[in-house]
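During the reporting period the student researcher (J.K.) took over the structure-prediction task from the postdoctoral fellow and processed the backlog of single-chain submissions. One of the processed entries is reproduced below for the supervisory committee.
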Amino acid sequence: VQLVESGGDLVQPGGSLRLSCAASGFTFSNYDMNWYRQAPGKERNWVARITGSGGVTTYANSVKGRFTISRDNAKNTMYLQMNSLKPEDTAVYYCNRELFPKLPWGQGTQVTVSS
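J.K. obtained the following structure tokens:
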């Protein structure tokens, strides 16, 4: 079982990034999946959720209207399109399933929003 996040980068405020979460070792399409983020010195927080079929999405208020979660079950991959990025979006971003117990956490991908 493995989750591998990628796509993070340094970007200016107002910019965009697309993160990917590649899953392996389990039946990806069976599970609702989440994006989380952890800023320096803070706890990991939930960002967005998508159902197994991809038909329903939910967002934290802080990212609603700016971020879009999606998935491609044929590729066992989930995405997070992030637009209108703000400095407060700076964090390490992680993916995991909604269900407990959580899968082993990946290494995350660093997003830094700074001019």
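The committee noted the following: The first strand starts at residue 2 and ends at 6.
J.K. will present the remaining backlog at the next meeting.
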